[in-house]
Amino acid sequence: MSDYLDPNNEELLKDFFMEAELQVDTFEQNILVLENEPHNKEAVDEIFRAAHTLKGAAGTVQMDELAHFTHLCEDTLDEIRSGNVEVTTEVVDTILSAIDIIKAMLEARSDGGVYQEDISQISGRLEEFIGKDSPKPAASAPTPKAPAAASSASAKEAEGLSEYEALELQEQCSDREKLIFVHINYDENNPMNTVGGVQIYAALKKNGRILKSIPDLDDLYKDVFYPEADFYIATEVDVEDIEKAIDIPDVVLSSTVNEIGNEIDSSATESVDEVKTEEPKAADPEVETAQKKDNSSADNKKEAASAGKESAKKETKKSNKNSGSILRVDSRRIDNLLNLVSETVITKASFNQINSSFNENILELQVCNNNFRERLKELFDKLPEYLQNIQKGAEIKDIKADINERYGNLYTVFDGVESELKTTIAKFQNTSQSLARTTSELQEGVMQIRMVPISQIFSRFPRLVRDLSRSCGKDIKLIIEGQDTELDKSVIDDLLDPLIHCVRNSVDHGIESPEERAAAGKPENGTVMLKARNEGNMIVIEVSDDGKGIDVEKVRQKAIDNGLIHPSKSLSDVEAFNLIFEPGFSTAKEVTNISGRGVGLDVVRKQIEKLNGTVSVYSEKGSGSVFTIKLPLTLAIIQGLLVRVGTEIYAIPITSVVDSHRIKPEDIKMIDNYEVFNVRQDVVSLIRLNRLFRIPTEETGDYYFIVIVGSGDKKMGLMVDSLIGEEDVVIKPLKDKYTNSPGIAGATILGDGTVSLIIDVSQLLDLGLKREIEERKLREATI
Amino acid sequence: MSSELVELKDLDFVSEEHDDARSAAEVIDYKMVTFSLGGKDYGIDIMKVKEISKASKFTYVPNSIPFVKGVYNLRGDIISVIDLRLMFNLPIPENNGPENMVILRLEDNTLGVIVDSIDKVVGISSEKIQPPHPLFGDINIKFIKGIVENQEKLYIILDVERVFDQNAAESAMQQGGIRSTITKPLPTAYLALPEP
Question: What b/e readout covers A663-689, taking b as 16+ CB neighbours within 10 angstroms?
């Protein structure tokens, strides 16, 4: 087996899994399209292509069970394509469950195992569609049950020999020779393709005795192209050397070299299905892949037999794989970055040039300066002479003229230097401007690389909604809008769960059953909308439904029952709706398998807040509800409000800042030992950041600065020494446990190179609360 | 590796070795960066040292363990800086200038440690490293790789991987109880065990 087909090649596997995921996604999406429009030919073709690619890829990496199963799907799809099978709900259901199996197989493989579940039910149903009723031969069954026994069986099957033939060949080898099987796929595009067979024959002959070839040597000499050929040779040379010898570019597409082991001698192979390879007559792709598959199946089972050794290897592979995620980036974006980088390189060169210009200017300035001084000294030396001349009665006019003539150009000594310096400075300004421009473009470009379209997660919803609506017995249409909206990769990854939660919620609680809808005078099929759009620096995602909406009274009552609010508290409707994000809150009367366990929406809010976003809900009773999720575009750079406490500077994410105030010490009031102050109507409690962080500062001064921060519905005022301003800050993680401190989200580097910490507002509020409680306990203990 | 090769590579130390008649024939296969802490000489395997530098401005991290001096910007990477003298409860000499920092490259982390003064790189033969003696020094014996004598100086070789083991740090944090009390007792996990 040649190197690039090594099934343990990590690069190859990584690519394969990525590719496979994509293909499965296309597969699934188009099946759903097909369900709605059964005669959409494009969709069928698309699915067929996806299945075919997946099958081929699986064969390449020797995931035989996958290749085989996909092949079955492909056959079914072929029947659909040719119109023999009608697209019914049953067919779609079966294919969807087949996709689930493919996914599970991929998952098992990516974890280093082989999918072991029983798939006979699904494959049986698929075969029914194809009209095939004969079960597959045991040797190529996807799950090897007795790998050791199967290995020798299939090894031989792969080599296309009957037991007798194999023995015969074995006997022809001397003791020191090994029997080696070579399978070659020739390149049809080679203009000299008919000679290829002979070339290979010659190459092999150098390395050993050729015992048998399919097609025969005589046939090879005829001017006919064979797409593939098998050779059996007896040789003392190693398998690798043979591989090298037959690796003739432009002639050989791929080759397989196997040693036929001694297990052939052992006669434990009676149950073998004899698949004798016929002389290949035409390059039928189906036959070709089938053969390839058989070969790979043989290898696969050998692998399984030595699984113990492999498993350790796979463990390490697994951990490697989890270490980083793969990003698919439009190559134009990379090109754009490359352009920008080359521009910075040019800028660097111009800076070098400017540097040397400045050096020249300084030299010139020194020359001029010396010149100037000399002339000035000369003038001073000359002055007594002039004075004498005046005393002697010379005309002042003449002397003036003389001085002018001799020293008049003193004024202009520096002119040349000045203009040159001006030119250099202008150049410098230009270059630094262009550097500033390229840097910001670079920053944007790198951010762009991290941006992926939200369709990556939206694409999962059609299937989800379909399955959910099936299981609830509701007829629901999903409308997706704005799936090209782009979002930071790290945000996307953490967004899926909360979104699924919201959609499930809409399907389960929002949309009524068809009867209810009919009774309410609505169309029987409900609609769930998934919309994404840009709004300034934020991404807004809306999940809306046209269901029954949220019953404000019910929510209010439930909140009172749960002790979340006081019965006398008056709440606006919007405030009441947002109570459903509180932990332990579910207005569903009964728990279903989909939602209603009361762990739902508070988790959604927590996850969204982790992404520095917000979630809110609005609803109108009887006509539906809307969940709105707002997220920052990226997590790597945030806008921060820089504040100073003592000598330290902290950055507060601007999304958490409500507003800021300057207050006098006497504005601070005490309520129940808490420091509070009034903002218009509200009373806000204060945290002194210096006390919370134990930074020794003088708490004197005519004014305090208060930054009001909020997380969810909690609000507090942070007291700081001064406000510095708003700035874009690049978040750097604090990696180790030494600096893993509550209330700190990360760090950033300021313009002067010092490190400034970024405050995690929600943690800080918790910390403040805890500290407050602790201190109170301490006080009570001392009393 | 042949001994010739080693000698070539360690040319800087050959002259030193010749002064010391006893070790003239010895092979140098272990190099360490030496520094002093509380008047004693210590060494750290040079393979664990990324660089040394002087620095003065550290950003204080609130509510961290007392011996965490803060974080430092090492050319764009933010690293934690630990004051070894606080960690091992050693006296801190008066110093108004920048601190001496050894930047360590550990298996899973990069961090800076502050020491009294950094001496030089010393090459020794690993055979000469003696196991640590429980009676020796101020540091918990499990953080000491061994003791070695060179040029009439006794060096304590620190096992930095163990000193800065992340799990150990966690337990130290718990012992210190930094979050729950207002006065901050020093975690004791790093100090020498009391004599039995």
Answer: beeeebeeeeeebbbebeeeebbbbbb
